[in-house]
Amino acid sequence: MKSILITGCSSGIGYDTAHYLHNNGYRVYATARDEEDVKRLAQEGLDAYVLDVTCEEDIEKMLTIITKEGELYAVFNNAGYGQPGAVEDIRTKVLKEQFETNFFGLHELTYQALKIMRKQGYGRILQHSSVLGIIALRFRGSYNASKYAIEGLCDTLRLELMGSNIFVSTINTGPVHSDFRKNATKMFQKNVQIEGSFFEEAYKDELLSDKEKEDDSFTKGSEVVIANILHALESKKPKPRYYNTFATHLLGGLKRLLSTRILDKILVKI
Known about the structure:
Helices cover 50% and strands 13% of the residues. By secondary structure, the protein is α/β, with parallel strands linked by helices. The protein has one domain (3-82, 90-178, 218-267): NAD(P)-binding Rossmann-like Domain (Rossmann fold).
């Protein structure tokens, strides 16, 4: 039975992927940062563990548990969150916090897992990026930066792992039904001084209004992502990058076709 470690399983794509793979023959190690979420996952029949990706010791303990029980076939680095706000309203310490989870936590798990996979001589690493690792949107600079960093890391890793039988796939996901936007709004209200900002009115209109509800035709279910995750896990030659949702294909295509100036004029309206 192939094993996979999944981070960020409290809701959304991580939660749905953990259950799907568990029900389809994988040994799933489902992890989340909050102990209550872990208890809920365990009650639902998953092998669930507390794992804060910003803690090196948590990662080491989790990998030790897995390797004592067998192989580590795959890792799905899914943990992450969004920190909205204009770049000029994001303090450096807030940006660092965004990177600690979205990028440095991802790297630490990758770093430790690769040592195991090198000894095994095989493995799969799935890195959850975003459509915002391909294009930028205003008020998403912190999140954009963390996902662009993942792109650079993965592009380099593929070159360094070529011929090793260890495959790295980047998962570029567009809008999917989850708690992501709700949690991002909480982080926005926590870390951004809205009143007095140059963008105060825009914030109220775009980030704190019904426009942020996930009722548009571009937002899809987790199944569109899970199908690609399954391919990345089971294909003899997994793709280096998987685009998920029409929005990702559309915006990724426009970036390849249009000049930066023209693309900026389109993106500023989104």
